[in-house]
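chain below, 254 aa
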Amino acid sequence: MGSALLAGWREQGLAQTYIIDPSSEAQSLAGPDVFVLPEAALLPPDFMPHAVVLAVKPQAASAALQGYERFVESAVFISIMAGKTVKNIGQLLGGGTAIVRAMPNTPAAVSQGITVAYAGPTVSPAQQKLSNRLLSAIGSVAWIKEEAMLDPVTAISGGGPAYVFLLTELLEQAGLDQGLPPDLAKILARQTVIGSAALLAASSEAPEALRIAVTSPGGTTAEALKLLRADDALPKIFKAAIQAATERSRELSA
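prediction:
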């Protein structure tokens, strides 16, 4: 996700940026205005960033944030670490730290993501505006006023691409089961999902209206939907799945 953000910032003409990453692969990200360092201690003594983006694994937060306390007075910290609350991060950096929690999703890799963000109580309007600008480099941004809402957000948009990919897998397999050649089953499944998403994006109609428009009474689609919606099976399993993901997000944030 950090790489996707960097790519978006580069397209927009980013300001001087430092990447802190000890891996040798990170050096490939270096450029005229992007400097890659293995640890924060090597940053120039007079460097005072306006924003620090925390794109590390949650379990690595404690070690990764060492040396960042000196930026608390100047920077807003934007965290895309799942499960790490504003309180958790504040305990690592010190009280009064301006922290924004953000939950992007993987379509950010093609600048089609949706990021939901929450601004902690000490984030100024200017810092929120800066955070919005940085996060919008990978797609749309929506702000919430309650941090707890990030748990269902994680379940729906964070995990949502996986559900869509699963649907694509199932469509492809169903095509194979009906005797379609593998190449045709693959392209039909993928392009149907891609095209449907494009139609949804271009239309002002609700998903329900678009679904009804495809479904001729007594036709083939109606027959398939009859099974998918029998005894409310699909709505029930989807509701249960999102509930399970939301509860797991809460457990990780505890």
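The chain has a mean pLDDT of 91. The two ends are 24 Å apart (CA to CA).
thats it, cya
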